[in-house]
Amino acid sequence: MEQAILQTSFDRSLLDSPRFGYVAAPGGGSVEFFRDFVVFGQEAYDYEATTRGQVYVDGGIQVSSSVVHDKKGRQQIVERTHDHRAANVQLTSGTWTMGFAISPDAVNESRRYVDQMSIRVSELQPKNATAADIQGMVDQILRSSGQPPAEKLKQLSNLRYDRLLSDDEFQRAKNKILGL
Fold first, then answer.
1. How far apart are CA 106 and CA 31, in angstroms?
2. Whole-structure pTM value
3. pLDDT digits over 12-26, tens only?
């Protein structure tokens, strides 16, 4: 197993991911929510920046009443409760989708786990680059002595294409590279 982990460049720290909890599926099995992934049956899926989750509930509880007579002929009202609720959890990502039924009584607990997952996913979102970050990238490109000018210009052009550099900033950096 160690060899397989080394060959796949598996991040061993994920095995230490704390478990938020689990929700039993009515048909058997359970879904386990961890900080970095979710497990359903024999399948595990990593959270990524596009992972989203939703808990759905449909239907309702119906109460019906009927009059019955006991052995002495007295009337009694008997109420019966009919639970017509259905609930499920839907998780989606850029590379996988998972849906599973849950007990309607586990909806609040499931929502809590999905919320915890969403907080973790928000931590995976790319952070916005600041002006200082962009200036640092430009400075690094200009300082890298091992690259030919054409490669440096290509990197600057990519920053301009991504709208991280204005045309004027690009031109000033380009002039420095070309020694103008």
1. 12
2. 0.60
3. 565 678 999 999 888
